[in-house]
Backbone:
């Protein structure tokens, strides 16, 4: 481990116990046993989630891992600096250190890349095509982020939920605002994960929209989005335009994710796919929305039919209107070597290296 | 009120009226002038707004044409002209181009009316607007007003549309400027004017749809009727709006309907002209006019006083002189250097008094001569009667001594008696004249007139009872028992009353009735002596109190003159009423109290 100690089973037990309080983790010699209240056929997929990373704690309480990089400096919300761990069990990383800056707008990141102040930056999904057309080096994951409208618990009017659900034009959002990146989605899981997402109609129901519109106007609603996310802003405004066709008036406003407005009726959120395994992913989503018991049930689901039914039920109960799944897109500096783009997103920096000079 | 006060009042009133009229005329004229100027200014600004509106329309058209002719626009049109063209890459194009060309409104619209990109409402891509297909040739169309649907409501825009034709396909470029408070702020307006814009279209007035360069208009609901009039009549309307009780806050609003391509009223432009400056100027002028008027009135009053003094000074002098003349001072003169009518009047007055003085002197002289002549005539007449018997008697004595000495003693005795009788007569005549000449000054004391009347008539009662030569005279007393005492000389009153009684007895030779009355009347005591005698003619009444005038055969004409003298010395009046055959009444009015000056003069003089 980063502090020079050996990775012991005891550390594994402590780490897993801290990650999931519902589990009972036992140490028996060098064996570690995990006991759950219900059958967990997807336990391995669950353990593969980042939250179950094996970490210890140093004398000062700092996290101590086992990977090729160890934390050198961390300023929450601003910056993280990791340095190569010389004595890593898998061998030393190629780069000496990596500095990650948080909170940079897409536009600032693009400038940083152009000015060689950054080697890897995020690209807004609507800029992917432009970046590709301009010859930028980009890597893209599968659609792993769900853009969805989440209703506030106070908003119980089913007409509003239905109106937005049938009026929103996901295809236009996908084609224009997302520049055909990702996929339109009316489901919680992407097609490449669940395989049945096409069963959820993503197109707009014009007939029902006209019926709702003829029913008169409802009280104005508010839809909040992350003010630093231009894609979210565009999508929220498009939802507002579409909802107007159904007789719904929606006022959109940007908010800081760190200081959310409590009076918003709806919120446009990005929900990261927790796992490429469908049941695990759906269970994690249910747990994140406070449906822990249902999450356990979903985690035990094996058949696709049952999973589809569970997802359908979850969609109805959680008050979520999925809009689209979008990929993670990054632009790389030409000197970056061996960048491995995982399908489910995330970084794998073990083998990444930098060319000494620009090619 | 004195003449000077009247003159001053008249002048002052005239000055006030004139100043007030002039001030009112000046005020009204200035107000009308200012209002006319204000109307002209507003009219000029309305014209300026129209010109500015037209200029901006041309500018919008020109800029939209420039966008339509841009290389990138042509490329986009060419790209979209392809079969199965993908419009999504251009979704943000309008926003970027609008920012570069400083357009508030810009849309790229496909030939079927589908919005490809919208700067004013980016999220509205993909929606269709049938509006663009309603005009066959947009190239020749000028800019026009258009109502734009936006995310936060509606906006009024000055819009121009230009088509881009590529390979038989059409791309519309619709750009323009919003008519909002920024547009209003860009208008250069003089101080005191403001521009407002109403963007509501519904039949009901919406206060929030009214804005000026600063934003929402307070008390906007007051403009509701004006807006309604313009929407109904679709023509310009002017109206005065009172924002508060303060008249200075009033505003003249000129409302101009802004119509779209089909003539519908899309908005209303309002040009407000505050009357605060006008009212301030009017108030300032009013205060200045008031001050000038007050100063004018004060100056006018002072000048009026001065003029009145100058005008009335000769008049006052004339009045003083006239009063002196009235008191008998005919030597009074008015000294003035004026050469106007008042100078002429003063000269005439002086000439008049001089003539009066001369006439009085001549009259006195003539009266004196006449009196002496009358006196001489009376004396000659009175003395001639006894002198003739004296002459005859003396001649008889001489003749008797020469021709009949034996009878001389008898004749002497008889002649002596005659001479003595005539001499006694002469002595009586001389005595009466002497008495008239020696009229004493009254010795005033408190007396009862009734007592004097009784004492004076007591000596005549025997004669009345015994007959007055030919008949009995009946005496009647009608004396007021409440008669107050007066200041008078009892001896003189006694004498005057006796003369009146003797005069009455002479008027009743065959008897009659003599009535004596006393009466108290205000501040006087009346004493009347009435007889039932022969009466007097009017001419006789007029001359009755003239000294030495008599209607009797042997009268001296001094009796009634003495009566008048006594009454006059007591500050009283005597009058006579008589008709021939109807008797005569003498009425004496004596004051209860004589003035102190008269008392002193009468007592010590």
Residues:
């Amino acid at each position: 481990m980063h502090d020079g100690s050996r990775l012991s089973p005891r550390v594994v037990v402590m780490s897993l116990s801290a990650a999931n309080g519902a589990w009972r983790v036992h140490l028996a010699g060098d064996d570690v046993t995990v006991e759950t209240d219900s059958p967990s056929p997807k336990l391995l997929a669950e353990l593969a989630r980042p939250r179950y990373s094996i970490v210890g704690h140093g004398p000062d309480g700092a996290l101590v891992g086992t990977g090729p990089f160890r934390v050198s400096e961390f300023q929450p919300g601003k910056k993280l600096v990791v340095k190569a761990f010389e004595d890593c069990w898998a061998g030393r990383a190629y780069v000496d250190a990596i500095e990650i800056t948080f909170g940079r707008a897409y536009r600032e990141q693009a400038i940083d890349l152009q000015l060689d102040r950054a080697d890897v930056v995020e690209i807004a999904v609507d800029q992917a095509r432009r970046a590709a057309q301009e010859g930028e080096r980009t890597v893209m994951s599968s659609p792993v982020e769900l853009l969805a409208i989440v209703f506030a618990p106070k908003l119980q009017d089913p007409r509003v939920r239905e109106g937005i659900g049938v009026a929103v034009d996901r295809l236009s959002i996908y084609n224009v605002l997302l520049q055909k990146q990702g996929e339109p989605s009316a489901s919680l899981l992407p097609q490449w994960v669940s395989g049945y997402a096409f069963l959820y109609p993503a197109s707009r129901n014009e007939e029902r929209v006209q019926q709702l519109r003829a029913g008169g106007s409802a009280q104005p609603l508010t839809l909040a989005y992350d003010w630093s996310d231009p894609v979210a802003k565009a999508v929220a405004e498009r939802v507002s335009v579409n909802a107007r066709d159904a007789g719904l008036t929606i006022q959109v406003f940007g908010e800081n994710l760190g200081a959310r407005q409590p009076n918003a009726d709806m919120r446009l959120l990005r929900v990261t796919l927790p796992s490429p395994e469908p049941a695990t992913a759906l269970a994690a989503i249910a747990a994140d929305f406070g449906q822990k018991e249902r999450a356990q049930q979903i985690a035990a689901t094996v058949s696709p039919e049952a999973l589809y039914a569970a997802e359908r039920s979850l969609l109805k109960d959680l008050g979520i209107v999925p809009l689209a799944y979008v990929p993670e897109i990054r632009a790389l500096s030409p000197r970056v070597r061996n960048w491995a783009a995982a399908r489910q997103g995330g970084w794998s920096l073990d083998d990444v290296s930098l060319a000494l000079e620009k090619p | 009120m004195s003449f000077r006060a009247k003159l001053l009042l008249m002048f002052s009133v005239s000055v006030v009226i004139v100043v007030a009229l002039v001030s009112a005329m000046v005020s009204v004229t200035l107000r009308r002038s200012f209002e006319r100027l204000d109307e002209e200014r507003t009219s000029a600004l309305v014209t300026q707004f129209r010109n500015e509106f037209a200029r901006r329309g041309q500018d919008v058209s020109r800029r939209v044409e420039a966008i339509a002719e841009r290389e990138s626009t042509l490329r986009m049109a060419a790209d979209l002209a392809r079969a199965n063209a993908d419009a999504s890459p251009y979704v943000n194009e309008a926003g970027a181009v609008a920012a570069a060309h400083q357009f508030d409104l810009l849309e790229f619209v496909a030939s079927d009316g589908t919005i490809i990109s919208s700067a004013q409402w980016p999220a509205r891509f993909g929606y269709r607007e049938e509006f663009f297909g309603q005009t066959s040739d947009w190239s020749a169309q000028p800019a026009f007003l258009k109502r734009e649907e936006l995310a936060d409501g509606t906006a009024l825009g000055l819009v121009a549309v230009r088509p881009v034709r590529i390979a038989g396909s059409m791309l519309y470029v619709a750009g323009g400027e919003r008519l909002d408070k920024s547009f209003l702020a860009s208008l250069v307006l003089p101080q005191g004017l403001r521009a407002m814009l109403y963007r509501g279209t519904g039949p009901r007035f919406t206060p929030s749809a009214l804005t000026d360069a600063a934003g929402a208009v307070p008390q906007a609901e007051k403009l509701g009727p004006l807006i309604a009039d313009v929407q109904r009549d679709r023509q310009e309307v002017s109206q005065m709006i009172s924002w508060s009780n303060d008249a200075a806050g009033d505003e003249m609003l000129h409302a101009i309907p802004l119509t779209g391509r089909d003539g519908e009223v899309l908005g209303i432009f309002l040009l407000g002209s505050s009357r605060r400056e006008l009212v301030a100027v009017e108030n300032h002028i009013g205060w200045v006019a008031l001050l000038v008027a007050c100063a004018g009135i004060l100056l006018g009053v002072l000048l009026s006083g001065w003029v009145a003094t100058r005008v009335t000074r000769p008049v006052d002098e004339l009045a003083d002189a006239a009063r002196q003349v009235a008191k008998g001072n005919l030597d009074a003169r008015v000294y003035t250097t004026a050469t106007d009518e008042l100078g002429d009047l003063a000269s005439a007055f002086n000439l008049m008094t001089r003539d009066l003085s001369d006439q009085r002197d001549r009259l006195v002289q003539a009266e004196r001569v006449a009196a002496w002549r009358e006196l001489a005539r009376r004396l000659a007449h009175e003395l001639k009667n006894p002198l003739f018997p004296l002459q005859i008697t003396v001649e008889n004595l001489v003749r008797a001594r020469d021709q009949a000495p034996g009878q001389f003693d008898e004749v002497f005795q008889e002649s002596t008696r005659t001479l003595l009788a005539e001499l006694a007569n002469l002595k009586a005549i001389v005595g009466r004249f002497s008495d008239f000449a020696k009229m004493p000054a009254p010795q005033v004391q408190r007396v009862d007139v009734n007592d004097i009347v009784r004492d004076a008539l007591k000596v005549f009662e025997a004669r009345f009872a015994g007959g007055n030569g030919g008949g009995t005279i009946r005496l009647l007393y009608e004396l007021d028992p409440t008669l107050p005492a007066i200041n008078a000389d009892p001896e003189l009153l006694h004498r005057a009353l006796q003369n009146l009684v003797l005069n009455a007895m002479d008027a009743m030779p065959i008897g009659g009735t003599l009535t004596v009355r006393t009466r108290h009347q205000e501040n006087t005591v009346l004493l009347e002596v009435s007889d039932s005698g022969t009466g007097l003619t009017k001419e006789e009444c007029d001359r009755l109190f003239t000294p030495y005038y008599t209607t009797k055969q042997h009268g001296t004409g001094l009796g009634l003159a003495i009566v008048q003298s006594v009454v006059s010395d007591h500050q009283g009046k005597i009058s006579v009423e008589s008709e021939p055959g109807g008797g005569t009444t003498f009425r004496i009015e004596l004051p209860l109290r004589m003035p102190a000056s008269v008392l002193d003069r009468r007592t010590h003089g």
Notes: The longest strand of chain B covers residues 153-166. Residues 341-435 of chain B form one domain.
